[in-house]
Design goal:
By secondary structure, the protein is an alpha+beta fold. The protein folds into 4 domains: about 30-45 and about 285-375, conserved putative lor/sdh protein from methanococcus maripaludis s2 fold (Beta Barrel); about 50-55 and about 205-285, Beta Barrel (Elongation Factor Tu (Ef-tu), domain 3), CATH 2.40.30.170; about 60-85 and about 165-200, OB fold (Dihydrolipoamide Acetyltransferase, E2P) (Beta Barrel), CATH 2.40.50.100; about 90-165, Helix hairpin bin (Helix Hairpins, Orthogonal Bundle), CATH 1.10.287. The protein has 6 helices and 20 strands. Strands 2-11-14-13-12-15 form a 6-stranded antiparallel barrel. Strand 12 (about 225-230) and strand 13 form a beta hairpin. Helix 2 (about 90-125) runs antiparallel to helix 3.
Length: about 400
């Protein structure tokens, strides 16, 4: 008898517990809600780009030769006109000597032609030679003078090539790249080889950010930019948009536009080539009414409630959007619960929305602080309400 009593008590407890939990589930609130509250919103456009010096000069060589000396290295500060490299000048010095000899020979020939022309003039005036011989002497003198001009130009070209054996820095700055070593031969037959890359001023840098075509319409010159780099993950750097270039760039079938962001790098923490994660601030609001974006996406599952909401929306339509072209606001439909969230069925309300940050959206009109908006609908245990169909599935499933 004792064991039967114990078994009966246990069975009664299990039955009561099941009944209790079933009643609790059936009476659970069918909707998840949020209260309309005030807060700050920042609407941004995100992009990635690369940090570059504002002025980046590639120093090359116009002549071919062997690197004889290097006077700077990586990170070396340089000034405009400073010697940074020296090519072996032996070949070009020999060319200068050859040109000097050819010029001296041409000048000697010109002097001889000048004497012959003067003599021919005197003889022609004394009627001792014909006109043809005098004309020949004058032509020979002119040819000698032209030869001297050619040899002078050849000497100047040889001297210029000799001077180009010394490589100078064109700007003040810092060497960020060196592509040659002592003893290396550079060939400048078709294009000038790059010896150094000099950044003019690393304290002033810029970001070339790739902004997608869908977002470039909101970008304007002067907008504030915040960005981070992987080297300093806990630090946010400021910047400002200075240019939006019209030249499109296609990256993996996505059209982007190069947006230039000016950056102050006074502490020299940022390095050229770093990848920057850019956030361009399009708009900012303080102490405005906000609702979660889930409230904008919510639609009731119950058919009766849906009919009631459609009537209450006064033609707004389920999820309708009407954009005001003058102020950029958009008409949206959300669902609210009366009596502080204790109403039986949600009621559709048309609101005007402003900016959003991807999580919350500004409410311009249609709601007041403290109103309760529906963000999702729960499915109580034992309810006969048909769940919503999976938009990614082939049919409707029950769970």
């Amino acid at each position: 008898m004792k064991w039967w009593v114990i078994i009966g008590l246990v069975a009664a407890g299990i039955g009561f517990g099941g009944w209790y939990w079933k009643q609790r589930a059936n009476t659970a609130p069918p909707y998840q809600t949020r209260v309309v509250a005030r807060g700050d919103l920042i609407q941004t456009v995100t992009a990635t780009g690369q940090l570059n010096p504002v002025v980046n000069v590639q120093v090359g060589s116009q002549i071919s030769g062997t690197i004889l000396k290097l006077f700077v290295d990586f990170n070396s500060p340089v000034q405009a006109g400073q010697v940074v490299a020296q090519l072996d000048p032996a070949t070009y010095q020999a060319n200068v000597h050859q040109a000097e000899g050819e010029l001296a020979n041409a000048r000697a020939n010109r002097e001889l032609a000048r004497i012959n022309a003067a003599r021919a003039r005197e003889l022609f005036e004394a009627k001792l030679i014909p006109q043809s011989e005098r004309d020949q002497s004058v032509a020979t003198l002119q040819q000698a003078e032209a030869t001297v001009t050619i040899r002078e130009a050849a000497l100047a070209r040889a001297q210029i090539d000799l001077a180009r054996c010394t490589i100078y820095s064109p700007v003040d700055g810092s060497v960020i790249s060196r592509s040659v070593d002592v003893g290396q031969t550079v060939a400048a037959s078709l294009s000038a080889p790059t010896l150094f890359v000099i950044a003019n001023d690393l304290a002033k840098m810029q970001i070339n950010a790739n902004v997608a075509e869908a977002d470039v319409g909101g970008i304007e010159i002067g907008q504030v930019v915040n960005f981070t780099v992987d080297a300093f993950p806990r630090r946010t750097f400021p910047g400002r948009v200075i240019q939006v270039r019209n030249s499109p760039v296609t990256i993996q079938n996505v059209v982007t536009y190069d947006t230039v962001v000016a950056v102050d790098n006074a502490d020299l923490k940022l390095k050229p080539g770093m990848t920057a994660n850019v956030s361009i601030i399009l708009a900012q609001r303080e102490n405005v009414l906000t609702i979660p974006n889930a409230a904008l996406r919510f639609r009731p599952v119950d058919e009766a409630a849906a009919k009631t909401n459609q009537t209450a929306s006064a033609g707004a339509g389920r999820g309708s959007r009407r954009r005001n072209q003058d102020d950029g606001q958009t008409s949206r439909t959300v669902y609210t619960l009366a009596n502080g969230g204790k109403g039986a069925a949600p009621v559709a309300v048309t609101i005007e929305t402003g900016i959003g940050d991807g999580v919350a959206t500004e409410v311009v009109s249609g709601l007041q602080e403290g109103d309760v908006v529906v963000t999702s609908q729960t499915q109580p245990t034992g309810s006969n309400t048909t769940p919503a169909a999976n938009p990614f599935g082939g049919g409707m499933r029950r769970f």
